[in-house]
Write a structure and sequence with these properties.
- By secondary structure, the protein is α+β, with helices and mostly antiparallel strands.
- It has helices at about 10-35, 40-45, 60-70, 95-110, 125-150, 155-185, 190-220, 225-260, 260-295, 305-310; strands at about 45-55, 75-80, 85-90, 110-120.
- Strands 2-3-1-4 form a 4-stranded antiparallel beta sheet.
- Helix 5 packs parallel to helix 7 (about 190-220), helix 6 (about 155-185) runs antiparallel to helix 9 (about 260-295) and helix 7 (about 190-220) packs antiparallel against helix 8.
Length: about 325
């Protein structure tokens, strides 16, 4: 049997090698800009400009005009039959508006202004704080749920804590990678970032619970085996299900990144990173943490080769 949990020190090291650069990027960004990553107008406020065209247009073509004018954080969506576009960008004055309208008309011909308004932040500090509180509340709820669901298993509290640690791992990986991309590629956090992050949390916890549930079943079935051997067996029995489920989702994410358009590419990329992290943490973090806690051996270095051979036998 391939022994996964005995090599946990390498899994933890890989997680650190991914998380630490992200934390450094967030600290650097906070020190230089006051925020862990760039933020879009959903957080800072801006202008909403609704334009009508005489033919359907592609949002990417219209957005390119604003990007060329220096408004890199502009978001463009089309509604209805594609002849109406809603543009969200940072506040502009009248001269900038006239200049941009001229550029749009030069590219698309006849254009009508349906609406123009300056708006405040769609997502302020209160909503951001509410999202943080929701994560803490979810952590407590997950822990309590697993304590109750695994109440017949010794140390059921450890299952809940291990799942929460894996969830925090995924949050740090996702936000860290986003902060790095924000520094180097100019990515900006918008409303979809919170949506993607909460979705990643859901996937991560679901995958972890599947593995934990198999450990619970095998704990009663293989009472004479050590806990590490039971967890290895459980991981191998659920590995194909975890990978099949997540790979299907990842393939869809790749398709959307390639063909979904620029307006959702950043959102899909965040989901992609988060799902990979969630799959990894469920297998290589949550369960090894559970075993390390049981054996009082964080890095899996205390067992001798003779002990491992005896267990394998």
């Amino acid at each position: 049997m391939f022994r996964i949990v005995e090599h946990r020190r390498w899994y933890f090291l890989l997680s650190l090698l991914i998380i630490v650069p992200g934390l450094v990027a967030m600290i650097y960004s906070t020190a230089t800009t006051g925020r862990p990553f760039r933020v879009a107008i959903d957080f800072t406020g801006g202008a909403i400009w609704e334009l009508g065209f005489d033919r359907p247009i592609r949002p990417a073509d219209l957005r390119a005009i604003f990007v060329d004018a220096g408004f890199n954080d502009t978001a463009v969506t089309t509604v209805g039959d594609g002849k109406t576009a809603q543009v969200r960008l940072k506040p502009i004055d009248e001269d900038q508006k006239v200049s941009l309208m001229s550029a749009v008309k030069a590219r698309f011909g006849d254009v009508q202004e349906i609406q123009f308004a300056l708006v405040g932040p769609a997502i302020g500090s209160e909503v951001t704080q509410a999202a943080i509180v929701a994560v803490f509340a979810a952590s407590i709820a997950i822990t309590l749920f697993l304590v109750v669901a695994f109440r017949k298993v010794p140390h059921s509290f450890r299952y809940g804590v291990s799942a929460v640690i894996a969830m925090v791992h995924d949050i740090l990986v996702t936000l860290g990678l986003f902060s790095i991309l924000s520094l180097f590629l100019g990515w900006e956090a918008d409303a979809l970032l919170l949506t993607a992050l909460l979705t990643v949390i859901g996937f991560s916890v679901q995958d972890t619970i599947v593995v934990f549930d198999r450990i619970r079943e095998n704990s009663g079935k293989y009472r004479g085996e050590s806990f590490s051997l039971i967890t290895n067996r459980s991981l191998l029995e659920t590995l194909h299900r975890s990978l099949a489920t997540q790979l299907n989702a990842l393939f869809m994410m790749v398709a959307l990144m390639l063909f979904g358009g620029s307006t959702i590419r950043q959102f899909v990329a965040v989901m992609f990173f988060g799902l990979i992290s969630g799959t990894y943490s469920s297998i290589f973090n949550a369960v090894p943490i559970l075993v390390a806690w049981e054996e009082r051996d964080l890095l899996g270095t205390k067992k001798s080769k003779a002990q491992l051979a005896a267990e394998a036998a």
